[in-house]
Amino acid sequence: MDIKINEIKIMPPTEFTPDQLIEEKEINSPSMLALQELQETTGTALYETMEEIGMALSGKLREKYKLIDAEKLERRQQALLRLLKQIQEDNGATLRPLAEENSDPNLQNAYQIISLAMALTDSGLSKKKKRALQAQLDTLTAEEGWELAVFSLMELGEVDTATLASLKRFMQQAIDNDEMPLSQWFRRVADWPDRCERVRILLRAIAFELSICIEPSQQSRLAAALVRLRRLLLFLGLEKECQREELICQLPPNTLLTLLLDIICERWLSVIGCLTDLPL
């Protein structure tokens, strides 16, 4: 039999209601009847119950996050007070007044935080005065991002906006980049004035974050960055000895430390090229 395509009529799909589907399938088992009844009689109640559970859960989560935030804030402050006390004992850190032309809000907040933290380390404070200072410190440390400015002021005594921005960029790179060799990190800080002090600022800021961090993945990243910066600071400690050897051997300035880092990092091709250029 020949069938002509243009004679075929395509019928629109038939719409079925759930009741019709059940009738078509002739499902009359007790379990299916019970399910149908449950869908019809408790659907709205089930939805309302789920909605109430969701609202209750969200409320409990909000309370939980409030507790987490409060605990995190307290841990930050306690860590700050401990570190400030340690720095004062190590090198007698003092806080210089901010320059009048310095209007950077981050530095102004950091200055106030240090002033309040120093005041709170006084064991002779009355309870009323301590609560008042603590309330002010709570307000200033409620937001994140103040730590690096605080440690910069504590280490350098004074810092400008450009220096703070440079430290922020370097700190983020140290956390994010886990494959850069030590010699390359050194080249990035080679032109910094007070580079040992600045690396110590980054070390303290990252160590501070690690001491209050509770997320495992972030803990791993911070710990890895801390190790990299510790290694960098260790080799920067060889700088004076390298400068002395450069004078004795009449080598160009600022070449021996970089060469030493390349040797330790096993960058042999680069090292051979450097050796051929040195007047040995």
TrEMBL record:
<dbReference type="Pfam" id="PF07201">
    <property type="entry name" value="HrpJ"/>
</dbReference>
<protein>
    <submittedName>
        <fullName>Type III secretion system protein SsaL</fullName>
    </submittedName>
</protein>
<dbReference type="InterPro" id="IPR010812">
    <property type="entry name" value="HrpJ-like"/>
</dbReference>
<feature type="domain" description="Hypersensitivity response secretion-like HrpJ">
    <location>
        <begin position="46"/>
        <end position="192"/>
    </location>
</feature>
<dbReference type="GO" id="GO:0019867">
    <property type="term" value="C:outer membrane"/>
</dbReference>
<dbReference type="GO" id="GO:0046903">
    <property type="term" value="P:secretion"/>
</dbReference>
